[in-house]
Amino acid sequence: MKNIAVIGCGGQGTWHCKQIMNSNVVTLAGTYDIDPKRMAAAKELGINLYESFEAVLGDEKVDAVVIAVPNDDHKELVIKALNAGKNVICEKPVEMSVSALDEMIDAANKSGKLFTVHQNRRFDVDYLAIKSIVESGEIGDVIRIESRIHGSRGIPSDWRCTKAQGGGMILDWGVHLIDQLLQIFKEKIVSVNCVTTNITGTEVDDGFRLDMMFENGKSAYVEVGTYNFIAMPRFYMQCKKGSALISDWREETEVALMTAWNEKDVLPVQTAAGITKTMAPRDEVTLKQYRVPRPESDVHDFYRNFCLALDGKADIMVTHAEVRRVMQVMEAAFASAEQGQTLKVNI
Q1: Claim to verify: residue 148 and residue 62 sit in the same structural domain
Q2: Residues 19 and 91 occupy one common structural domain
Q3: 15 lies in the same domain as 126
Q4: What is the pTM of this model?
Q5: Which residue intervals of the chain are DSSP H helices?
Q6: Are 91 and 118 a contacting pair, CB within 8 Å?
Q7: pLDDT of 241-267, one tens digit each?
Q8: Of 130, 97, 346, nearest to 249 (Cα)?
Q9: Distance of alpha carbon 39 from alpha carbon 19, whole angstroms
Q10: Order of all β-strands in the sheet with 87-91
Q11: What is the pLDDT of residues 79-131, one digit of tens each?
């Protein structure tokens, strides 16, 4: 069993503490937060408290630390922990620029310690369902995937509203959705176009729409909104032999498999302003429709992989190269939104 200490007792830090306390591969050494109220709340949960960050780093029993603090403090704490000989799991987004991330990676390489990022939404069952359909090839090669998350409550009224601390939806939810899609699309990204929204405030984006084009003509679309009172589908995927749809992250996947391209006799459809064959629906002769059950998922697999990687028995799940690629896309998205144009990239 590996001993883990958690730095930060906010929402995500407390989540980590509870997950570790229920884990069969790691144990919770304790936690530390600069906020006395959060420390008191952690104590009520029966969690051991450290008096300082330095006390955590000085505890020889601690194998690794989880950094779960506001984004602008990530680099400093991660580098200090690595230099103190601790392995590090950092919450996402790992930082706010590629250059800052590179400093962290350099510190990890020099220290010889393991440094990774908690991309927990690789365990979301909606994403896993789409990924499994792609990998099965059952509806052919991917043409385009659209990934959306819509809410209607704006941004939480804390540091996530502050630009200096890395607030906004690109860095909050975008980092997840981009990471998910880049686990599917391995081809080079050749262009990025992003539009941000500022409906509920002006300091940071409260939503965005991002298009990514790949070198082989495939495309991916990411949309996050916090002022949508009717949500659009969570996933929509176009493939060479059919389509897949997840209407809501709690629902099963709907799949339509094209079994034949042509129909001998297509009946025209009467619309309000005329008839159409082009948009006429298909029938069971050329289309097979079915649902795919939600796959199983276990978030504890993240820590299981981390422990195996520490022992040299597995490759780390979230690599530096993957984290850096996502960071490059987010930087390009910000630049595209600021310039109001599509950017040519090589990511």
Answers
A1: no
A2: yes
A3: no
A4: 0.95
A5: 11-21, 36-44, 53-58, 74-83, 98-111, 125-136, 169, 175-184, 301-310, 320-339
A6: yes
A7: 999 999 999 999 999 999 988 766 666
A8: 130
A9: 18
A10: 26-32, 2-7, 64-67, 87-91, 115-118
A11: 999 999 999 999 999 999 999 999 999 999 999 999 999 999 999 999 999 99
